[in-house]
Design goal:
Layout lengths: L6 H13 L5 H18 L6 H11 L1 H34 L4 H14 L15 H7 L7 E3 L2 H6 L3 E5 L5 H14 L3 E7 L9 H6 L8 E5 L10 H9 L2 E5 H8 L8 E6 L3 H7 L6 E6 L2
Parallel strand pairs: 1-7, 2-3, 2-5, 3-4, 5-6
Antiparallel strand pairs: 6-7
Helix pairs in contact: 1-2, 2-3, 4-5, 4-8, 5-8
Amino acid sequence: MKPNLECGPCLLKWVYDRAGIMVGEEKRFELIRNILSVLSREFCSTGNVGWLSNRIMNSIHEFVIDSARYFEGVKLQSNKVAEELLPLARNFIEEGQTDRERFERACGLSAGTNVAPIGLPSEGFKFEEALNMMMQRNPLPAVIGNLFKAVRGATHILYIADNAGEIGFDSLFIARLKEMGLNITLVVKEDPFFEDATTRDVSFFKLDQLVDNILTTNGYFIPNETTPSLSDSFKKSDLVIAKGTGSYEALKDERNGKTIIYLLKVKCKPIAMRIGVNTGNFVVKLEMA
C-alpha cells in the first residue's frame, strides 16, 4: 500500500511504543533517531508501507530483542484467553446450517479477533468483540466479495497469520479449509516480533499438526523481498489469505496477480478509505486476480 502522509507519524508511534518499552530514556532517544533516519530517507508517496516497516524494524533489531521480554507475557495471556474461548467458538461455527454458513462463521471469527491496537498493548487480548459475535450481540464482519466461491476454486492457500492469541481462532478457520480439501502453507513471523505469532504460538495451538507446511518471515511478507522458499510457495498458491493491518499494507498493490482475502480490523483512515468502510470496523475483503 502506498503511504498517506499520516502513515509516517503512525509508523513512528507504532514502532516506538513497542520497541522502547524495556529501555531507558537515553536509549529511547536513540530509538527515535533510528526510526526518523529511515523515514527521512525512505518515506515517499510511491513507496510501500510494509516495505518501510521492514526497513525500520531491521534498523532497530536490538530494541526488538529487548522488547521480547515484555511481549512474552502479552502473548501468553492472549493465547490462554483464546484457548478458553475456542470451545465456544467451535460450537458457534458448527451451529451454522450449511457448509457455506459454517465457513463464513469461521472466517468471520478469524477476522473479528484481529484486535491488536496501534499503540502498545498493556495486557493480553481479551477478544471481547469476537465473544459478542459468538453470543450474537454483534454481527460478523462485513464481507466484500464471494469468498466461498473463491476458496472452493482454490487448491493451494498461503495463509499469512498476524498475532498471538488470534492465531488460535485462525486454527478453526484453517480446520474448515482443510475439510474442504485444501493444501495450506502457514506463514508466521520469526521470533522475536512484538505481539505477532511465531512458531511458538503455532505449537501452542497445535497448528503444526493441521497445516501442510509452515514458513517464517523476517518482517512483513512482501512477494518480491522474501526467502526463496516463501517466494516459491507464493508463486505456487492460487489463493492468499492475509491477516491484519500490516499484511494489508504490505500486499496491497503488490499482489503480483494473486487473488487475496484480507481479514482485518480497519484501524486507520487511509485503509478505511481504500476498503470503503468506517474506521473501527472488522472486514473480510476479497480482491480477485
